[in-house]
Amino acid sequence: MEPMILEDAPFDTDRRKEEIFGPVILLYSYNDFKEAVMEANNTHHSLQAGVFTCDLNKAFYAFQHIEAGGVCLNDSPSMCVDSQPYGGIKDSGIQREGVKYAMDNMLETKVLVMCNVGNASYF
What we know:
By secondary structure, the chain is α/β, with parallel strands linked by helices. It is 24% helix and 15% strand.
C-alpha cells in the first residue's frame, strides 16, 4: 500500500472509525484546539496519537486529555523506542510493550508476609 494522506475524511467513514494498520494519516483542520482533542477521542481505538504544535500549553493539554496509549509531539505516532511503554487503550489493547513489560510478563510475582518473627518459636 502506498503512503496516503486523507484530508477531512467524513467522521462517519470506516477509515475514521476503524484502526488502520498501514502508512495512512487522517488530517483534519480545526478552529478550537479543545474541540479537536475531543474529536480525536471520538473513536473505539486509541493506540497512539500525533500532535503537531509549537505551543507547549497545547502539547500538555493534548497529553492530559487525548485518550491514547501515547502522544507523540511533532512526530509520527509510529515512533517507538525499546524502553518506552508502547501500547494502546480502548479497543487497541490493554498491555504495554517494552523491556520492563516483557520482563514482568516472564516473572511470577510472589509476596511473603511475616508476622511475629522476633522471639517466638513455632518449630
